[in-house]
Write the structure tokens for this entry.
Amino acid sequence: MNTDILLTGATFEASGNPMTSHWQDVVRINTDGALLIRDGRIVALGDAPVLKRSYPQAKVTDYSGKLICPGFVDAHAHYPQTAMIASWGKQLIDWLNSYTFPEEMRFGDPSFAKETAESYLDLVCAHGTTTVCSYTTIHPCSTDAFFAAAQSRRMAVVAGKTCMDRNAPDGLCDTALSAYDDSKALLERWHGRDRLRYAITPRFSPTSTPEQLSALGALWAEYPDCLMQTHLSEQLPEIRWVADLFPDARDYLDTYEAHGLLGARAVFGHAIHLTGRERDRIAETGAALVHCPTSNTFIGSGLMDVAGLAARSISLGLATDTGGGSSFSMLRTMAAAYEIAQLRGTALHASQLLWLATAGSAASLHLGHEIGLLQPGLVADLTILDLSSTPAIAQRSARANDIWEAVFPTIMMGDDRAVADVWIAGQPVRT
Ligand code: GUN
Ligand code: ZN
């Protein structure tokens, strides 16, 4: 018989979207909270004394003084870029050519792909991330390696073979036909198996011919429950290049839409320099945008208008964009999101930052029915935060007047040392 597990501590609870409602109305921290886990899922959430009385047989793990959060969801990452994170001195196109493409070439070797996938997933778990949506490389074995590593860790992940048939080195190009065939074989092998989902993945318009974009649009029409992920309007020189490559397109988004690659299950990374038409079409279609703040500053891309996009009710996720981003940590990513919003005149609240990193990202990946909230029925993927993980953080949180003031220093200054424990599908992970 499986034993019930009761976790007690402060619980981060959301009943709505604090980016579109007053955060006080929809998010709270219950400082004497508890949740009951049975068969890998959350079955009850409430006050610790009440749940202790209701489930006297449950095995209790006490996280008093710590914050029990849904596991962090990194909605845009490139696991093959793990080893070249923090590469100096280039902006997007030079950065891709100098650092990224040479590293991605190595993933034709299945054992290298396996080793990197395993160490990447161990790293993100140690940082409190329980779900990632990752690009792989053009090599199908890099996608197999990633899904296999996630499956053995019982993680919910989204991934897809990166497709490129131009403007990349010879060893890193597929074709319109092979991208279609390989993506189809991979999605039939992995999509919906255990907790794995497939995302059809054209890298971005500059590295796909119109023929390849059309082939992938046709594939998505055949498998509409898959996601489609790509990059959109990250840097100004990139946008000018797209305009040259697609002279008939109305804008960058149109290069995707014209080939059947826009819809509610589309997930666009970056989306910084959008035109009014692009914003309108994204809002109309229900596509999601993913904010990658450490990447957007590190590669010099720009300041995404998070508050303005949220006000349009556009679905927003948060992500590291490893290795364009400069950290594996979603705490560091929340801090960067705060700083970018400040530069645009908005102070995001701790509740909004935590929500973006959990429920917001989960919803952007259409996984809100499975992860992202402490809610009965959802899978128990959890991150337990120590709110005094370093002397610098501890001396600040000791001065806090309320729980949010105690949490905010960990968001701004925390890293993997703040991650006390991680649970995946109701079991603790040794990080
Ligand atoms: N645009 C196309 N490919 C990439 C990538 O790997 N990282 C980032 N940040 N932007 C991209
Ligand atoms: Zn990216």
About this structure: The chain is about 40% helix and 25% strand. The pocket of zinc ion (ligand 2) is lined by residues 76, 78, 231, 269, 321, 324 (CB under 6 Å). The radius of gyration is 21 Å. Residues 110-126 form the longest helix (17 residues).
